[in-house]
Model the fold of this input.
Amino acid sequence: MISKFIVTLLLLTSNVVASPLIVVTIKPIHSIVSALTHDISSPKLLLNSKQSAHNFNLKPSQLNLVMKSDLLIAVDNHFESDLNKIIKNIDTTKKIIITGSSEINLLPTTDGSSTNYHLWLDINNMKLIAQDISIMLIRIDQKNKGTYQKNLKSLIVKLDELTNGIKNKLANYNNSPIATYSDSFQYFIDAYELHNPVVVTKYHGDRLSIYSALKARKAIKNNEIKCMLSDKEVPTSRLNVIADGLNVNIYSIDIMGIDIEQGQDHYIKLMNTITNKVHECLQ
Done:
């Protein structure tokens, strides 16, 4: 005869519904999802610190994670390009492609040939993305609807505070000219109304030609620019070619937050780190 304890245990076990397995490709977006799923589940980060979103090879364990996921969240097929075929084969009800939202602000590359995918550097974009992801989470996990809504509300408050803090810190530099190696910082620059008359290369990943280097040097000198920003992927040797002999600060910034611990606080720490470095560069 089965004891009452075993019967009760079986009933409880049968009523347990596992939280959805959510997989997110990059750290900044993973941070937002972590905040939304707080007290419910822990989303999995697909790409580790040694894997560039632009060029990576998935390990069998990572591929298995994607295939088992209830929801895959990626920026764009052309951003995480090595996921292109996999993303296309995933049902629309089991994936969120960030650039597919009609609400977010998408900027073109400097030469207008493509989309600039560094959209997380605009906090307003992240607020809209959070709202879209929250809707999808509720759709696939109705039992936790109230917690998702509470987490979204708390996240929006934090992102608004983050925005105001950045605006206040950079307010005195709106008219200070700034140079950037590529258009990686364009969302950040536009969001905080910084003056960016010199973009050395046409887009992120573009090669540095002699013509581009000479043109940039002349523009930096003529505009009396004291600050040039670059993402960390650009070799120091290329930056030195442009800045040699000029009175300009060069700041290489990790716009992905590779060295910042993953989790719900990652994005806020990332944006504050970028802000502090831009502020130092402009001083």
